[in-house]
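Supplementary Methods. Inverse-folding protocol.

Structures were first reduced to a discrete structure-token string of length 243. This string, shown here, constituted the complete conditioning input.
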């Protein structure tokens, strides 16, 4: 299970602390490298999430593992009056705050340093909770998902965007080459943290996806669980709700 994969093999820190350290290290070039690595498809997937969220007409949204705030900024186009971007990396949040200030969205979006496995908000608080590329970084996946269920309102919407592994030829082989060779190479060339993109690749390959993750969500207590593979299966959008 992905919880055993950590960014720094020789570190004495727990996974959570290592992930925070890693994202602090790569925060400066994270946005640029992501666009290169995903060939721009990442933006299309997030637009699909925006449509899903907009349709539910939420008043309050929590974006966990918000990073530099791309999804939180998109959600400013919705009916929400409270948008929280939560992340354990202060470095990522600092860059996100600059982006939000530049777009004059300070009054609508709040960037909060916090842990998705210990969400600092009451039960039944948010209409929508999203996590893009963050659930695989949870130290304890079931604990993180349980916290999300706790803070989601009844009938609220939970959406995950996560990488997944294509199962059909030739996309399976192409994905394997991209994740095992290209992604770590780009990370080594352009990131000051030489192991970060190797970790991101390994954690993506080992993380449960598709019906396996659906069943974990159902076990936690989510209902109306479904998954929508994107771009030949290199990523998947998951939707779920709360009783």
């Amino acid at each position: 299970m992905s919880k055993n994969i950590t960014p720094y093999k020789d570190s004495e820190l727990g996974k959570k602390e290592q992930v925070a350290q890693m994202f602090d290290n790569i925060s400066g070039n994270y946005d640029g490298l992501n666009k290169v690595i995903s060939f721009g498809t990442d933006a299309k997937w997030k637009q699909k999430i925006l449509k899903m969220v907009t349709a539910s007409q939420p008043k309050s949204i929590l974006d966990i593992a918000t990073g530099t705030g791309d999804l939180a900024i998109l959600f400013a186009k919705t009916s929400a009056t409270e948008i929280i971007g939560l992340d354990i990396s202060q470095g990522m949040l600092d860059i996100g705050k600059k982006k939000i200030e530049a777009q004059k969205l300070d009054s609508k979006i709040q960037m909060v340093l916090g842990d998705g496995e210990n969400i600092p908000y009451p039960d039944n608080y948010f209409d929508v909770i999203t996590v893009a590329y963050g659930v695989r970084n949870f130290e304890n996946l079931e604990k993180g998902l349980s916290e999300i269920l706790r803070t989601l309102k009844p009938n609220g919407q939970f959406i995950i965007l996560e990488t997944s592994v294509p199962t059909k030829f030739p996309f399976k082989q192409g994905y394997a080459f991209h994740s095992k060779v290209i992604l770590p190479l780009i990370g080594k060339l352009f990131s000051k943290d030489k192991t970060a993109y190797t970790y991101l690749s390994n954690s993506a390959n080992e993380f449960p996806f598709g019906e396996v993750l659906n069943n974990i969500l159902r076990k936690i207590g989510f209902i109306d669980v479904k998954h929508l593979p994107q771009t030949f299966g290199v990523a998947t959008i998951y939707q779920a709700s709360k009783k």
